[in-house]
Specification:
The chain is built from eight helices and four strands; from the N terminus they run H-E-E-H-H-H-H-H-E-E-H-H. It has 373 residues and is of the alpha+beta class. The protein has two domains: 65 residues; 273 residues, Up-down Bundle (Outer membrane efflux proteins (OEP)).
């Protein structure tokens, strides 16, 4: 469903940045070539000394290994965030898709209602000609049917708007106006809360938080290694005109007299504490929200099913009886219109209930790593 390359690139950018940071953390610093010349008289001549040395910084405290470990955890966290973003993008597309499905169902329902009113107008006109209906009855039906074009135009506008929104999210030129959108508006029954929580525990959101906490701990351990990096060097020293040469060794060690990394230790300790607390708090909130949304999704789905069984069938039966009774002259035109409108409103209400249940299901979906069956 993620057909838009720009959206895919945006989601993958965080992972790419984290992988670049990992590559930097695992790379050894470059050696340094040092050359020095000391001339006895001018720039050359007998007795001039030449020094050539290669220096390399060594991490004896193990900071680089901890930094690499932290970077690997950051990559894992970035993958978790990217997976969560992909789920959110799929759910967003689902929300717009089902909004378009609901809009098309409303358009079809409005079309059926307007058609029924037109049929009722024709029947009333025949009855008025035969003297079985008054002029008032005919004008009343015409007035009701006259709202039809505006209702259809509004429903078509909603269809166009929802299709356009869906196409903008998916990319690739949008959605064809003739393409059929096939989907069941009423969502499936949610899994038991225990299974949903188990899925969330293994999901990318909590995995990203846990990885971030691990990275912060590694960064704190690295900052706590107070031994500074040591730079060692090896080279040669030669004296011109004498034929003498020798090896040169050097060791450079910063003395941690004033700066013992106190500020960095304090900073990384605060970040580690924040990451650990955030993991605990967001896990607790996430699991509580899953239980709440699962219950809401079930309740809305049951409400839609109950309305379909108890109210919609009753409204359809009332409409059928009203049509027969009006043809037989047993009820007034106002009663016939009321029955048609009641059935129409029941159909619209069912669409609203099913769409609300679907949205609750999709909101629950954003918290899970995979589509619950």
């Amino acid at each position: 469903m993620l057909a838009d390359p720009d959206r895919v690139a945006m989601i993958n950018a965080t992972v790419g940045a984290a992988q670049g940071a990992l590559a930097s953390a695992e790379t050894l610093p470059n050696p340094v070539l040092q050359y020095q010349r000391e001339a006895a008289g001018g720039l050359g001549g007998r007795g001039s000394e030449n020094f050539a040395q290669v220096q390399q910084q060594l991490d004896l405290a193990g900071r680089r290994a901890l930094a690499a470990s932290a970077a690997r955890s950051r990559v894992a966290a970035a993958h978790g965030v990217a997976e969560s973003e992909r789920v959110m993008a799929v759910v967003a597309a689902g929300e717009r898709f089902y909004a378009a499905v609901a809009a098309e169902r409303r358009l079809a329902l409005v079309g059926e209602f307007v058609g029924e009113l037109d049929h009722l107008e024709d029947l009333t006109a025949l009855r008025a000609t035969a003297g079985d209906a008054s002029r008032y009855d005919l004008e009343r039906v015409r007035q009701e049917a006259g709202y039809g074009p505006a209702e259809i135009a509004r429903a078509r506008s909603e269809v166009f708007s929802t299709r356009t929104a869906l196409g903008a999210l998916l990319g690739g030129g949008g959605i064809s106006s003739t393409a059929e959108l096939v989907g069941e508006l009423l969502p499936p029954e949610p899994m038991p809360s225990v299974e949903l929580i188990s899925l969330a525990e293994r999901g990318p959101r909590l995995a990203a938080l846990a990885a971030t906490a691990e990275a912060a701990e590694d960064e704190l351990r690295a900052a706590s290694r107070v031994m500074p990096p040591v730079t060692v060097g090896a080279g040669v020293r030669a004296v011109e005109g004498t034929g003498t040469a020798g090896l040169v060794f050097s060791v450079n060690v910063p003395l941690p007299v004033f700066d013992r990394n106190q500020g960095e230790i304090e900073r990384t300790a605060a970040l580690a504490s924040d990451a650990a607390a955030r993991h605990v708090l967001e896990r607790r909130e996430l699991l509580a929200r899953i239980e709440s949304l699962a219950e809401r999704s079930r309740a809305l789905r049951d409400a839609a099913l109950g309305f379909r069984a108890a109210r919609l069938d009753s409204a359809d039966e009332l409409e059928r009886i009203a049509k027969i009774a009006y043809r037989a002259g047993e009820i007034s035109v106002l009663e016939a219109i009321d029955a048609l409108r009641s059935a129409h409103q029941a159909g619209l209400r069912l669409i609203d209930l099913e769409l609300e249940a679907r949205r609750a299901h999709l909101e629950l979906r954003t918290l899970l790593p995979e589509e619950p069956q």
